[in-house]
Q: What sequence folds into this?
């Protein structure tokens, strides 16, 4: 079982503006602490930290070695749709929008979007077939 994942971001305040409401809508508790913010569900959590200034120039790209994307369980198709609406209304990028919600195929109902650092994020509906 996964204990936690730690992710550095370019601007913690800007990232928190995305991740706080996003994770709360998925049922995660938000825990701010002096070095960052944790998003906890049970004993597992994601930790976001401010990247050191001397490491910011390299930037992030999901096709480099390292994290490609984070995928979360949605509660239902309606929940995934609500998340997609929030992403759009909050001004964030929905990926593959013209193919939403079946960008990965006819039996896979999902939202794909990007956080402020362009980390790809996915919310998948349970199979309702």
A:
């Amino acid at each position: 079982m996964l204990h936690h994942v730690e992710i550095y971001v370019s601007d913690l305040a800007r990232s928190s503006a995305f991740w706080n409401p996003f994770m709360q809508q998925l049922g995660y508790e938000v825990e701010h602490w002096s070095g960052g913010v944790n998003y906890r569900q049970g004993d597992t959590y994601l930790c976001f930290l401010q990247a050191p200034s001397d490491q910011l120039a390299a930037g992030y790209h999901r096709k480099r070695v390292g994290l490609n994307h984070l995928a979360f369980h949605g509660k239902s198709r309606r929940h995934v749709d609500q998340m997609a609406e929030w992403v759009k209304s909050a001004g964030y990028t929905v990926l593959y929008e013209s193919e939403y919600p079946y960008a990965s195929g006819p039996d896979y109902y999902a939202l794909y979007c990007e956080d402020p650092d362009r980390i790809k994020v996915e919310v998948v509906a349970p199979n309702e077939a």
